[in-house]
Amino acid sequence: MSSSGLTPPEHFAVLAQRLRDGKTADEIQQIVVESAVDLIDGCDRAAIGVLEGKEFRNAAASDDVMRLIDELQNEVGEGPCLEASTDDIAQVDNDITQHSRWPRLAALVVERTPVRAMLAVPLVDEGTRSGALNVFADHPNVFDDESLATAAILAAFASVALAGARQTQRADQLEEGMATNREIGAAVGILMATHNISQEQAFDLLSKASQRLNRKLRDIATGIVRGDENTPG
What is the Cα–Cα distance from 26 to 162, expressed in whole angstroms? Predict the structure, then answer.
């Protein structure tokens, strides 16, 4: 039972509700890191890092400590989050004060933050490794097999939700693009009929009006279709 009084299944039910359709990728990542503190035994703070080339970008964090640690990982080029992202294997160090496998990172973290234990599980984005869910504790030896299993389930939740959000975003972009093309096509037709010109000449008029007025081509086209403005000439 967590400090909020909910059991893990209840927490996951709440999480699923929060991750329903309509959430952006940024919102999903933030919800996941906030939920990690309640869901994962021993977790005091969490973050999601996204792998971009050989560097790690903090995509969401429960606090500034996690943002700092992601910066430190990039600075020293080592850490559980980097390894979980590239090796596709969960990484655990239950006491970074004792012979840590990431000695340079551990020294800086111990010096500058209260964190004493680290856990990172890989995130998969549309079949490829893309980053890691990072779960840290301010006390040593708090992460057990159950902590690792829960973190892995939470990472899977995040991966599925992120994939859904991106598919929705792509569909919205496609729909917007189709709407734009329809508006422009209609405006070109109006210009052709009004000025008795070719399709190419009509599109050229639209483009020049867009540049001259410093407005998007679609906005010019929409105005023409709705009769809100004079046709360019």
Answer: 9
Give the C-alpha separation, 221 to 182, whole Å.
Answer: 9
Q: Are 200 and 210 in contact (CB under 8 A)?
A: no
Write down the mean pLDDT value for the chain: 81
The full DSSP string for the chain is --TTS--HHHHHHHHHHHT-TT--HHHHHHHHHHHHHHHSTT-SEEEEEEEETTEEEEEEESSHHHHHHHHHHHHHT--HHHHHHHH-S-EEES-TTSS-SSHHHHHHHHHHSS--EEEEEEEEETTEEEEEEEEEESSSS---HHHHHHHHHHHHHHHHHHHHHHHHHHHHHHHHHHHHHHHHHHHHHHHHHHHT--HHHHHHHHHHHHHHHT--HHHHHHHHHHT-SPPP-
CA distance 209 to 230: 11
- The reported pLDDT for the residue numbered 56 is 76
Quote the pTM value.
0.66
pLDDT at 191: 79
Domains of the chain: 8-170 (3.30.450.40), 177-226 (1.10.10.10)
Q: What is the pLDDT at residue 1? A: 43
**Distance separating alpha carbons of residues 95 and 175, to the nearest angstrom:** 51
The CA-CA-CA angle for residues 63, 67, 68, to 5°, reads: 115
